[in-house]
């Protein structure tokens, strides 16, 4: 690790946000190349790199350096994020494949809040947070619990309640389309 890199790392650990920018400038090209080897979509590769730097900031006090550098940790985090993004994409494509080709009537096409977004916004804040982090962002339940400062069991129960409410809301909405 060079002197500039070591100084940036120490500033980052102390909470200096500009140090994160310095490390981003230093490592982003290499991490992006790594992500593009793992993912077919450039935007997903950018997302994987962004996730890695977000996690670096979030976990900065516990990151294990290898030979004084966070690069191996960042490469591993990019690989994990790439796997999660690829897995989420497969689930999404599988869901789309199961969707009927022609519906009885067209679903709303305008950007209004009469659908999923409206149903999500009607959930209590605690349930909204759990749904966003675990379902939309794909974080494991233990990470969601750690992020929100609640037990894993609470995450599971909030997620179950939220999914039930969203399912009921979407069933009612779909019935109105017919």
UniProtKB/TrEMBL annotation:
InterPro entries attached to this UniProt entry: RNA_pol_sigma-70-like, RNA_pol_sigma-70_dom, RNA_pol_sigma70_r2, RNA_pol_sigma70_r4_t2, RNA_pol_sigma_r2, RNA_pol_sigma_r3/r4-like, WH-like_DNA-bd_sf
TM ranges: none
Domain RNA polymerase sigma-70 region, residue spans: 23-90
Domain RNA polymerase sigma factor 70 region 4 type: 116-166
Gene3D superfamilies in the record: 1.10.1740.10, Winged helix-like DNA-binding domain superfamily/Winged helix DNA-binding domain
Keywords: DNA-binding, Sigma factor, Transcription, Transcription regulation
Pfam families: Sigma70_r2, Sigma70_r4_2
NCBIfam families: sigma70-ECF
Family, similarity comment: Belongs to the sigma-70 factor family. ECF subfamily.
Name of the protein: RNA polymerase sigma factor (Sigma-70 family)
Organism: Microbacterium paludicola
